[in-house]
Design brief:
Strand content: 15-25%
Largest sheet: 5 strands, mixed
Shape: elongated
Number of strands: 11
Number of helices: 8
Radius of gyration: 23 Å
Helix content: 25-40%
Low-confidence stretches: none
Mean pLDDT: 90
Strand order of the largest sheet: 2-1-3-6-4
Number of domains: 2
Length: about 280
């Protein structure tokens, strides 16, 4: 009689046991990460020195996360899990709150804040970017979220970042850029990150311009991503928030504006952030 074919198909109980083993291992690794953070606090004394937010290290971590990811687990889920892990352990090092401008939509901004910072970090709502900047300015290490576009009646809130002692734009979210992102609202993160922790791939500048019109706007838009609001103190004037991509300099934008017939009356660097990581075909 022929022998029955051998099967190596595991039983349902075996597979559930494997899942339990992995779940326990993940939990133990998270606790081990917590132990390391506890030692880090002692070494860096971050509990006394303010925010532990590190935009450069975070951008590097998220890039590596996307590059190694594969399989059936959605990238959205992996990104959110890691964002919450990073934010929560940062909060453990140096407690902070997230101040958010809800003028672009309560649900959209809350989705962005919870996706990127979780529920452990306190969420403080504001109606207007100016209130967010003021709250962050008065804090030790809080973060502010403002829409990365000209919200109605927002005004040139970024001019409050021009002073040396003011907080700066330190990040733009979502960092992983793809279609149908579950927290797709584009936002700037404003805070007081340490200079050596900043990413300078994209420079963010505040400018005041005379002679601003639609043709000038089109010319400027070929150089930088522009947010513009009217500046009543200047004839045909506008206050600009310009994000210069890697490889572009302020002089490039100034030349484009002048060539289009505008006059730049002032400029100030108000922050920088990492270039967004574009992913196609991954959810």
């Amino acid at each position: 009689m022929p022998k029955p074919p051998r099967t190596d198909v595991p039983s349902l109980a075996d597979l559930r046991g494997e899942i339990d083993r992995i779940d326990e291992a993940m939990h133990r690794l998270l606790m081990e990460r917590g132990d390391i953070i506890d030692r880090l606090i002692a070494v860096k004394n971050t509990s006394d020195t303010g925010s532990a937010f590190r935009p450069a290290r975070e951008a590097d971590m998220m890039r590596r996360l996307v590059q190694r990811h594969h399989g059936i687990l959605p990238l959205d889920t992996v990104e959110s899990i890691w964002r919450v892990i990073i934010s929560t352990f940062t909060h453990v090092q140096a407690p902070f709150a997230v101040h958010a401008d809800l003028s672009a939509g309560d649900a959209l901004m809350r989705d962005s804040a919870r996706f990127h910072f979780g529920f452990t970090v306190p969420f403080v709502p504001h109606m207007g970017a100016a209130g967010v900047v003021a709250a962050v300015s008065e804090s030790k290490g809080d973060l502010g979220l403002t829409p990365a576009f000209a919200a109605p009646h927002a005004g040139a809130w970024w001019t409050a970042l021009e002073f040396d002692s003011a907080p700066k734009v330190i990040a733009r979210l979502p960092f992983i850029d793809r279609a149908d992102h579950p927290a797709a609202l584009p936002v700037f993160v404003v805070s007081r990150a340490a200079p050596d922790a900043m990413v300078t791939e994209v420079e963010v500048w505040s400018l005041r311009v005379a002679g601003w019109d639609s043709s000038t706007a089109r010319e400027a838009g070929t150089i930088a991503e522009i947010v513009a609001v009217p500046d009543p103190s200047i004839d045909d004037g506008a206050a600009l928030l310009a994000s210069l991509p890697a490889g572009r300099k302020l002089a490039d934008l100034q030349a484009a504006l002048v060539n289009a017939g505008a006059t730049v009356t002032s400029s100030a660097l108000v922050g920088s952030h990492a270039t967004r990581y574009t992913v196609a075909g991954k959810k």
